[in-house]
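Quick check before the chapter quiz. The format below is the same one you will see on the exam, so make sure you can read both the input and the output lines.
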Amino acid sequence: MGWQYRAVPDVEVVECWFEAHHAKVLLHAQTHAEANLVSVVSNASFTVPKTHLKAVAELLMRSNKELNLGNLEVDWETGQVMFRVANLFSPNRHDERIIASMVHTAVAEMDRLTPFLAEVCRLGTGELLLLDIPELLAREDLLPAIPEAP
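Here is the expected output.
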């Protein structure tokens, strides 16, 4: 696709950075040749403090409920938030358009989540008690404007 990437030595992984609307998104794509599987994972540009993990877990759970493809997750030990999407292909038949779509989806979903995640992480621990995650997710001001049709 002409994207700049870095191959990770000794594994079937490439990493790349994408400038999205809200953040710079780190992404890695990995193939599992024996299973004909491609996995694409995007990472949030910041980690979640341990004090905020429960609120973020609820945010991700509620966000996952609305997803048709892929899922959001958090590494409980490191606080790293990720979006993961994978696809099984027929042997020796990887479709570049599907892989490109997986990359676009991973970047877009992490970019969409970033302002909501930032809102949770900016709160003090006492303020977390008052946080209403469904109300937060209903905020349209945190989403980029939809371009007008030509």
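If your answer matched, good. The first strand starts at residue 6 and ends at 8.
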